[in-house]
Amino acid sequence: MKLLKTIAVMMVLSSCAKKEVPDVPPTFNDPNWIRIEIANGREAHAVYGNIDDTLMVSTLTEIYQTTDKGKTWRKTKVNHQPIYGFLSVKDTVFALQSNSLLKNNLRMATFSQYFSLDKGFTWDWCIKYGISEQRIQEFATLNLDNQFKIKLKENIEPYNKDSDPWSGYVLKSDIQIFKKGTSKIIQVPFDNQINNIHVDKSGKLYVSAGRAIHDKKTGKYLSAEKSEAAIIYISKKNVSQLID
Is 116 in contact with 92 (CB distance < 8 Å)? Predict the structure, then answer.
């Protein structure tokens, strides 16, 4: 009898343990945001376009495109690394492959070996047409109508007091707003690590994320979603409404 009781207790404890780390994360449901995923993408990085027309997303190693609001995705480029920014020059989009820190602690997305003339449906090599590969724009930074700036704020906890400012434990990044000489952090309803940001022509904010989950208060890494999807959160409202 004691053996049966022991087995029953162990089964209950095992059941509870499984509930703490579900195989499938709870359905995301928020009045101001939606969540879309690219299966097996692992991380989302640079984003270009808009969800209502053509949306292009860099994952950890590839570029994908959707024209049906994320229901299906088409792989358009294998690049074996993230793209840190899509730079639009007239009718051309350059994929920026390097993420560099300048002397003034300004992080830049630079260098592009290939470009697209059709919103990412097809890609071609810059060197093939004698097009310069030297491209640059500020990493994960958006200047909107000269009224305010949105920037990804990377947070680092130094290993010790003598550590370099950019050397330490990686905490959860924030989305920082600069307006009229003041700044604030946009509060978001998810705890995934943030990799990049984008705003489309209608003012929706896109937040690229990965499966890593960080603590709400400390920002420290806690765990990871079991799904290996690349994740993009999209605001339902204009970004100006998220600020006010």
Answer: yes
pLDDT of 149 reads 92
The token pair at 167 is: 């050397």
b/e per residue 19-38 (b: at least 16 CB within 10 A): eeeeeebeeeeeeebbbbbb
* Neighbouring C-beta atoms of residue 192, cutoff 10 Å: 23
Instruction: Report which of residues 198 and 12 the model is more confident about.
Output: 198
Model's pTM, two decimal places?
Answer: 0.86
Residue 42 class from Cβ within 10 Å (0-12 exposed, 13-18 middle, 19+ buried)? middle
- Cα–Cα distance measured from residue 133 to residue 12, given in angstroms and rounded to the nearest whole number: 60
Residue 57: CB atoms within 10 Å: 29
Q: For residue 110, what are the contacts with CB-CB under 8 A and spacing of at least 6? A: 96, 97, 98, 99, 100, 134, 135, 136
In the beta sheet, which residues pair with residue 236? none
3-class DSSP state for residue 224? strand
